[in-house]
């Protein structure tokens, strides 16, 4: 038998000629720090060292490692210093060069090899350039967009700044992530665990007339086979689940899937936004089946009329819509030069989480334990209890670490239902983990949209009328909210705001980071810029005039004071191949929090333990809680034992809509007050006079104690004049807020999280390439609970926004409905070399009425990115781009005055 050496120990190699090195590392050796993501050598998450050289273990045959030395992330720090951490690992921790952490092991392995080679090349403590670092790590992808910290970490490690043993990390779980010790759902393995696979439809629209599962059940190694068809036996998109199988391994499960016999009646289908709007388009949902449509929004769908495949109009947030239409028609007829009209189109953006949707289900008698890659451990537990008629105490949902979500993992998914049903039938634990094609095709997306906007300034310089009519390409889902969001910014005398869902035979969309915000801003913020040009006003000054929000007023002053903006006022040359420009845009999101959120604080064995059933998907919930408690007691964050990711803990918030921070800090602070009182009451002696750590002494001597607190309502007395922006939308806004709280358990608070971005670009007019040079992002979200992590969230959100604007395009076959961009080699997300330099400015005012003063960052920071980029391109070239992503062919065509498909 052939062997290899892994992290200093001999390891056997399998006889299977098809086995890959990653299979041996993860499955046979249980070294789960090495991650399988793309399976195509594109993302770098599976990187290991073979005889010191980085290789993609998802492509390397296991037999090729015979006689070689393999080092995984678990072995990177062996023999280095007392803490057994490589300088690169320490640098990543110190610079918070990570978020969800799923890609981090691959980056660590590659960066450590680069560091060692750099230092060995007699360069001493010279600092590598950004281009050198970017080239070295170009084979790695981070969907969270942690590249800004990665640049700084690698540069400082190479400079020798982390050669010592002392390290302070701003993220409490960073060590587990940089060493590969953090366990994600895909890493869970129970004794006797089976592997589950889902059979999916190959047709965009069909009725399944016969489903014969018996051939699969008869195969050796198959533990369970179930049908996933609905009562109507209809499939409405390619990839819709039909059946599921659990078998001893994935190879056997796939063979069993292939053995299932299906007979189906193909039905007419319609694919995409334009085709589904035609009068003769096949109907996707008949009236009786409309409730089967999915939901692309954060809240429960509001009622709306249907007309064929069109759902809408939804125009509850309009204000004097008739006047808006009349004024715009009059301006159009008279040729008013201030009237701005344009049709914009935005592309479909996939979440592309690096950890796939995954579930591991296990029954122990009548008790169900489910590990899920989810954004809502407590909510999913409640949904499972309802579905399976189980008591809450008999269900446990666990998500220790989650490899990204961005909105796609907030609901109860079919992977969880199938895994549970298979586990029940097989009487064995079952894991279902989506492959990359499934992840990029059936787990949701930000819908593409067509946005028709008309904006009319008044003769006096105010905003007279605004019309925004949107059609969202929602697939087999509904409830897009795009145009309605324009009600809550730039007050006008009249607004016509109308949303339509366009339903077709595509997989359902899903909420994605600020649902509806980025496409709305892409149209509105370009129209505002165009109005400024026609009115001969500075674009920031026009926004200050039209936008009275106090948070954004302060951000406008900050943006206007930037050197790059003052210098941009000079007339720019629009000649030559390379042209530079500067653009600005504004964005906002709602301040959301989750009623019923609780935090328990306890003293156990002389240490404070903080517990709540929330989860950390990279946004930093553990650290926010640890920082809040530590600051109150004069301790270090790492002194606090934070327990999350378990539905058995007190009810906690989901990680969606930027509501985590605002939901957990207030009850944490209330619990701190209670715990301090309990500790003082039970203290047998007072701290030594003059002690510089009195609470540390009291805690060390305290008996075990436990207190809890629930998230309170905000103190409106602390914020005179500040109220929910939904109230500014009148009666329908109040109704919408009530519905959000009643049906989605989400409260809309007073005040508006806001962002203003200034982006500098360089446009190559020959090749159509846009290089983003610098991003200046100003964010008003109250007090910053974890500064390093807040910067990471801000820059990562911008990078996702740049991907939306420049690269990301989910491609679909318009005839068959097949997803053509089902691999990371086909779906382009930003890489480290695409990362600009950043200036991040936090305005910490505006939320004093919130206990703790902090609200969320992740949504608002991505909303203005695409229009700021488009406005910068216009500043550089004079071309107004109306469609994203800004592909090179589209840009060149626009420069030549023609259209591109």
Write up what this structure looks like.
With 901 residues, the protein is of the alpha+beta class. 30% of the residues lie in helices and 22% in strands. Strands 8-10-6-20-17-18-19 form a seven-stranded mixed sheet, sandwiched between helices. The chain has a six-stranded mixed sheet with strand order 13-14-25-23-22-15, with helices on both faces. It has a five-stranded mixed sheet with strand order 2-1-5-3-4, covered by helices on one side. It is globular, with a radius of gyration of 27 Å.
Task: List its traits.
about 900 residues; alpha+beta; seven-stranded mixed sheet; six-stranded mixed sheet; globular
Tell me roughly what share of residues is in helical segments: 25-40%
Number of strands: 35
Bulk shape: globular
- Give the DSSP E fraction (strand runs of 2 or more residues): 15-25%
- Give the neighbour order of strands across the main sheet: 8-10-6-20-17-18-19
Tell me about the largest β-sheet. Answer: 7 strands, mixed
Uncertain stretches: none
- Coarse structural class: alpha+beta
Mean model confidence by pLDDT = 95
Number of helices: 25
As a whole number of angstroms, the C-alpha radius of gyration is: 27 Å
For the termini, the CA-CA separation is 56 Å
């Amino acid at each position: 038998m052939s062997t290899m050496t892994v992290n200093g120990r001999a390891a056997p190699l399998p006889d299977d000629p098809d086995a890959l090195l990653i299979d041996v590392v993860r499955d046979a050796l249980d070294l789960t720090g090495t991650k399988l993501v793309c399976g195509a050598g594109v993302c770098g998450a599976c990187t290991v060292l073979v005889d010191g050289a980085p290789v993609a273990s998802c492509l390397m045959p296991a037999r090729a490692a015979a006689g070689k030395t393999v080092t995984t992330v678990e072995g990177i720090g062996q023999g280095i210093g007392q803490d057994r951490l490589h300088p690169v690992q320490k640098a990543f921790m110190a610079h918070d060069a990570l978020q969800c952490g799923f890609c981090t092991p691959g980056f660590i392995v590659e960066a450590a090899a680069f560091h060692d080679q750099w230092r060995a090349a007699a360069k001493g403590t010279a600092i590598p350039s950004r281009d050198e670092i970017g080239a070295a790590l170009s084979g790695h992808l981070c969907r969270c967009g942690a590249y800004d910290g990665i640049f700084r970490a690698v540069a400082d490690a190479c400079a020798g700044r982390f050669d010592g043993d002392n390290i302070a990390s701003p993220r409490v779980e960073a060590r587990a992530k940089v060493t590969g010790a953090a366990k994600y759902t895909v890493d869970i393995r129970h004794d006797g665990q089976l592997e589950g696979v889902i059979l999916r439809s190959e047709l965009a629209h069909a009725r399944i007339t016969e489903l014969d599962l018996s051939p699969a059940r008869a195969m050796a190694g198959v533990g369970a086979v179930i049908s996933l068809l609905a009562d109507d036996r209809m499939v409405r998109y390619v990839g819709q689940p039909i059946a599921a199988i659990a078998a001893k391994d994935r190879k056997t499960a796939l063979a069993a899937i292939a053995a299932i016999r299906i007979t189906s009646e193909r039905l007419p289908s319609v694919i995409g936004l334009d085709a589904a709007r035609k009068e003769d388009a096949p109907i996707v949902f008949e009236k009786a089946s409309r409730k089967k449509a999915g939901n692309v929004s954060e809240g429960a769908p509001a009622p709306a009329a249907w007309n064929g495949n069109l759902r809408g109009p939804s125009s509850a947030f309009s204000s004097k819509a008739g006047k808006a239409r009349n004024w715009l028609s009059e301006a159009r007829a008279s040729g008013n030069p201030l009237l701005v009209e344009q049709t914009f189109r935005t592309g479909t953006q996939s979440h592309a989480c690096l950890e796939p949707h995954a579930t591991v289900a296990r029954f122990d008698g009548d008790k169900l334990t489910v590990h899920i890659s989810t954004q809502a451990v407590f909510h999913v537990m409640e949904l499972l209890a309802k579905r399976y008629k189980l008591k809450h105490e008999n269900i446990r949902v666990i998500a220790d670490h989650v490899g990204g979500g961005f909105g796609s993992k907030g609901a109860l998914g079919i992977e969880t239902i199938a895994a549970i049903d298979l586990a029940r039938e097989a009487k064995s634990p079952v894991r279902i983990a989506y492959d990359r094609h499934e992840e990029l095709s059936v787990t949701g997306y930000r819908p593409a949209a067509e946005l028709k906007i008309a904006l009319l300034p008044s003769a006096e310089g105010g905003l007279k009328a605004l019309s925004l009519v949107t059609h969202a390409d929602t697939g087999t889902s509904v409830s897009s909210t795009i145009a309605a969001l324009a009600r809550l910014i730039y007050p006008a005398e009249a607004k016509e705001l109308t949303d339509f869902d366009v339903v077709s035979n595509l997989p359902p969309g899903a909420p994605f980071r600020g649902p509806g915000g980025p496409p709305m801003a892409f149209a509105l913020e370009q129209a505002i810029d165009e109005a400024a040009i026609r009115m001969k006003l500075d674009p920031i000054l026009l926004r200050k005039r039209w936008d009275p929000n106090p948070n954004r007023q302060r951000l406008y002053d900050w943006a206007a004071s930037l050197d790059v903006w003052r210098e941009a006022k000079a007339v720019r040359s629009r000649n030559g191949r390379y042209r530079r420009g500067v653009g600005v845009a504004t964005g906002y999101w709602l301040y959301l929090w989750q009623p019923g959120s609780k935090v328990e604080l306890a003293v156990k064995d002389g240490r404070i333990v903080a517990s709540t059933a929330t989860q950390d998907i990279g946004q930093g919930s553990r650290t926010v809680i640890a920082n809040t408690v530590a600051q109150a007691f004069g301790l270090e964050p790492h002194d606090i034992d934070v327990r999350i990711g378990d539905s058995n803990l007190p009810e906690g918030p989901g990680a969606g809509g930027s509501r985590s921070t605002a939901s957990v800090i207030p009850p944490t602070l209330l619990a701190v007050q209670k715990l301090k009182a309990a500790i003082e009451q039970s203290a047998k002696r007072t701290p030594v006079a003059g002690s510089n750590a009195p609470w540390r002494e009291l805690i060390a001597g305290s008996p075990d104690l436990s207190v809890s607190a629930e998230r309170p309502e905000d103190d409106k007395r602390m914020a005179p004049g500040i109220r929910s922006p939904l109230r500014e939308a009148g009666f329908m806004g109040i109704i919408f807020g009530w519905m959000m709280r009643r049906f989605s358990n989400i409260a809309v608070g007073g005040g508006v999280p806001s962002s203003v971005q200034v982006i500098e670009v360089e446009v190559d007019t020959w090749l159509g390439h846009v290089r983003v040079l610098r991003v200046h992002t100003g964010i008003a979200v109250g007090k910053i609970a974890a500064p390093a992590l807040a910067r990471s969230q801000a820059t990562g959100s911008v990078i996702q926004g740049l991907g939306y604007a420049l690269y990301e395009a989910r491609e679909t076959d318009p005839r068959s409905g097949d997803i053509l961009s089902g691999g990371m080699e086909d779906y382009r997300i930003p890489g480290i070399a695409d990362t600009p330099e950043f200036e991040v400015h936090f305005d910490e005012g505006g939320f004093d009425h919130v206990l703790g003063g902090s609200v969320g960052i992740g949504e608002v920071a991505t909303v203005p990115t695409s229009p700021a980029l488009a406005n910068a391109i216009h500043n550089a070239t004079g071309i107004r781009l109306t469609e994203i992503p800004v592909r090179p062919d589209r840009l060149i065509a626009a420069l030549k005055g023609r259209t591109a498909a």
